[in-house]
Amino acid sequence: MHFLHDLKKKRKVKKVKRLLKRLSQSGNKGVALLIDPEKGVNPRLHQVLDSPELDLILVGGSYCTGEGLEELLREIKRIVAKVPICIFPGSQGQVSQEADALLFLSLLSGRNPEYLIGHQVHAARQIHQSGLEVIPTAYILVNNGELLSVHSVSQTLPLLNTQVQLITDTALAGKFLGMQCFYLDAGSGSSVAVSQEVIFEVKSLVKSPLIVGGGLDSGQKVKMAFDAGADLVVLGNRVEKDPSFLEEILQIKTAYNFSLKAD
């Protein structure tokens, strides 16, 4: 009984679930920054990282083994006071109590059992004991056929933006399996983003928090994702090259949400 009580006490406050639910229900939009442990934090981002306009920091990557993850999370926590930090795991080794939450991803767009359930089984007990807030997330890779690092590591192919029915059927399967969140990802470094039609159709069917990332390298693409129904957009590659891009998108988000209130 004492053991169970201690575990219960360790559970983190459900900051990320609350954030995603609030965005999904209110119609307001959010922005997340993805930090790859292999690359660390760009010093030019320190001031922006604790901006009240930044909603979430994701930490993880396809090639990250978990080494250096805790050190990076501690570094981010020294910079950030209020923005929740969530692990975006690429493998079973990416678990740490230093984060607030973890997206418990199942790669539904592929058919590799290791990324559907294998890594998840191996990491389950450690996640349970960590006290992390866990968000069951349907992870669906979608682009125009580009093969990027995430596809290489997971040994899966992306679904195509033109395969709208297959993508929406995949999302519905995730919903019926009990997934609480949906993540449409074109892949880090993708030249194209997930299409507006795909975002709109998935959001219309699942009616759950929807995260969209990959290929969002311009303000116009971010606005299009917002318009189509994305609740939270994830920035990564473009910010690594140009940290000022994060400030630009945060300004766009603020203006977008203000216009929603005005309407």
UniProtKB/TrEMBL annotation:
<feature type="binding site">
    <location>
        <begin position="214"/>
        <end position="215"/>
    </location>
    <ligand>
        <name>sn-glycerol 1-phosphate</name>
    </ligand>
</feature>
<feature type="binding site">
    <location>
        <begin position="236"/>
        <end position="237"/>
    </location>
    <ligand>
        <name>sn-glycerol 1-phosphate</name>
    </ligand>
</feature>
<feature type="binding site">
    <location>
        <position position="36"/>
    </location>
    <ligand>
        <name>Mg(2+)</name>
    </ligand>
</feature>
<dbReference type="InterPro" id="IPR039074">
    <property type="entry name" value="GGGP/HepGP_synthase_I"/>
</dbReference>
<protein>
    <recommendedName>
        <fullName>Geranylgeranylglyceryl phosphate synthase</fullName>
        <ecNumber>2.5.1.41</ecNumber>
    </recommendedName>
</protein>
<comment type="similarity">
    <text>Belongs to the GGGP/HepGP synthase family. Group II subfamily.</text>
</comment>
<keyword id="KW-1208">Phospholipid metabolism</keyword>
<keyword id="KW-0594">Phospholipid biosynthesis</keyword>
<keyword id="KW-0479">Metal-binding</keyword>
<feature type="binding site">
    <location>
        <begin position="183"/>
        <end position="189"/>
    </location>
    <ligand>
        <name>sn-glycerol 1-phosphate</name>
    </ligand>
</feature>
<feature type="binding site">
    <location>
        <position position="62"/>
    </location>
    <ligand>
        <name>Mg(2+)</name>
    </ligand>
</feature>
<keyword id="KW-0460">Magnesium</keyword>
<dbReference type="InterPro" id="IPR008205">
    <property type="entry name" value="GGGP_HepGP_synthase"/>
</dbReference>
<keyword id="KW-0444">Lipid biosynthesis</keyword>
<dbReference type="Pfam" id="PF01884">
    <property type="entry name" value="PcrB"/>
</dbReference>
<dbReference type="InterPro" id="IPR038597">
    <property type="entry name" value="GGGP/HepGP_synthase_sf"/>
</dbReference>
<comment type="function">
    <text>Prenyltransferase that catalyzes the transfer of the geranylgeranyl moiety of geranylgeranyl diphosphate (GGPP) to the C3 hydroxyl of sn-glycerol-1-phosphate (G1P).</text>
</comment>
<keyword id="KW-0443">Lipid metabolism</keyword>
<keyword id="KW-0808">Transferase</keyword>
